[in-house]
Amino acid sequence: NAGVTQTPKFQVLKTGQSMTLQCAQDMNHEYMSWYRQDPGMGLRLIHYSVGAGITDQGEVPNGYNVSRSTTEDFPLRLLSAAPSQTSVYFCASSWGEVTEAFFGQGTRLTVV
Amino acid sequence: KNEVEQSPQNLTAQEGEFITINCSYSVGISALHWLQQHPGGGIVSLFMLSSGKKKHGRLIATINIQEKHSSLHITASHPRDSAVYICAVLPTSGTYKYIFGTGTRLKVLA
Questions:
Q1: Interface touch B45/A103, C-beta < 8 Å
Q2: Is A106 close to B42, i.e. CB distance below 8 A?
Q3: What are the pLDDT digits (tens) for B54-81?
Q4: Is B98 near chain A, with CB under 8 Å?
Q5: Of residues A40, A91, A103, the one with CA closest to residue B102
Q6: Contact: A43, B88; criterion CB under 8 Å
Q7: What's the pLDDT tens digit per position in A59-86?
Q8: Which residues of B touch A58 (CB under 8 A)?
Q9: DSSP character string of B3-43
């Protein structure tokens, strides 16, 4: 099993560009989440999904969109990148609400 | 004040020492996770707790729901244990919104 796969691992964007961070899991997990990690701060929840077709906002959703058309995939879209979105992004999945979580390897995004 | 506080923020230990990392939280929770993150690396789940104590190898995690406190212990520490350890809680709010501590940076010297 590949677990949780994030692509790309590194990305540099110019202000105003758009892009999609990909997240895929092959464990048939219902719950998936996107987090951002910034220096000196804990991981912060951007968006999450509790199943295909169901998404909700987390703590810092502004500037990001998500969709969950399949159980396996949970892409994160940056509509118009801003320097404040420079961060490391992690995708995570779990089978249930109170079960072990599995994280991807992260995407380091720089917006210039 | 953060809803999840970890202490210490930084910890340096000699190889072989017994290490304790603490996590205190201020909300009612359904579960608490301990995570490990190596420098430049991904995040790995070590434990998920909702009560009591769990042990895996040299790692032990405990939780006291009444006191809203959890500890992660590392026995016979080794340089490969050097990492950031993160506490995360799932509040009993009915939504899947984890809250994370800022992490404890552990360095174990040989």
A1: yes
A2: yes
A3: 999 999 999 999 999 999 999 999 999 9
A4: yes
A5: A40
A6: yes
A7: 999 999 999 999 999 999 999 999 999 9
A8: 97
A9: SEEEE-SEEEEETT--EEEEEEESS-EEEEEEEEE-TTS-E
